[in-house]
Amino acid sequence: METTVILLKPDCLAAAKAGEVIGRFEAAGFVIRGCKMMQLTSDLLREHYSHLLQLPFYPEIEGFMMSRPVIAMAIAGDNVIERVRDLLGPTNSTKAPKGTIRGDLGKDVMHNVVHASDGLETAAAELKRFFADGELFDIPAG
Ligand code: UDP
Ligand code: MG
Fold first, then answer.
1. Where are the alpha helices (DSSP H) in the chain?
2. Using one digit for the tens of pLDDT, what is the confidence trace for 81-91?
């Protein structure tokens, strides 16, 4: 059983779509192991988005992600990392098919509603980055 890290981004909360997005994950059968609201900081984002630091518009991404608090969640299920990425659709919301979260709710490449870990190693690193000991629960499915 894998666990992945989800961030409901500022655009998701601004549009009052947190419930809809969480509902899609619940409908897919995933189990919530952790959930917290947090104001992201520049330091945390520079670590989380280190693969984007060299982009000329990185400051815009950081500004967007700090524009209001986000909700961080840890959700578990079989093959959850890949399945959540499939539910999201591609990074660019304008290219994401209808029926995907980004295709239905996203605006563009930056305002794309949800972050999700993209592999086993990043999921493990992101669990440590966003959740302290005691903030993750072992909850049996069903
Ligand atoms: N992003 C952007 N422009 C880009 C690439 C990324 O605004 O050209 C933003 C976007 O919000 C994206 C986030 O930076 O979700 C992280 O980028 P990544 O390539 O990791 O995409 P993701 O894994 O979120 O699909
Ligand atoms: Mg990514």
1. 10-14, 18-27, 42-48, 58-65, 80-88, 101-105, 120-130
2. 999 999 999 99
Q: Is residue 12 pLDDT above 70, yes or no?
A: yes
User: And the tokens for 123?
Assistant: 């999921």
Q: Go through the domains of the chain in sequence order and give each one's CATH number.
A: 2-130 (3.30.70.141)
Cβ within 8 Å of residue 133, ≥6 positions away? none
Q: Which protein residue's CA is at the shortest distance from atom 12 of ligand 1?
A: 110
Known active-site residue 115:
yes
Q: Are 139 and 21 in contact (CB under 8 A)?
A: no
Q: Which of 51, 52, 95, 117 best tests ligand 1's pocket when mutated (most atoms within 8 Å of CB)?
A: 52
Residues across the chain? 142
For residue 60, the one-letter residue type is E
CA of 55, nearest ligand number: 1
